[in-house]
Amino acid sequence: MKNRILFVDDEKAFLFASQKLLSRNGVEVHTAETKDEALAMIDKNEYDAVIADVRLTGVYGEEGLDILRYVKEHKPQTRVILITGYGSPEIEKKAILLGADFYFEKPVSYFVLKDALKKLGINYLS
To answer: Is residue 124 part of a domain?
Structure first.
């Protein structure tokens, strides 16, 4: 059975590259660019993990935290990794308190993401 990941980011190029680099035998990667699109996909599909950018819109956006809250409420078995290019100790603290499994600041390497996914039980078959 394939593991399924949802990757949420508003930067199309980053989303495309992430999908290419994280998709492997045994791992299927879906993508979403907005919070609403992500929530709809979470409702329709079962994901082993969601990787979401904290800020999807504007300067003060924290949509990734909203996605995290939604996942924890509606799909508590789904693991969540938050990433951000605008990190702060406050955002990191909120993420951990809300139940994020991992929190990384951009730029985050794909090796780090794959290692985090492996720690969450997402298997990468070669």
So the answer is: no
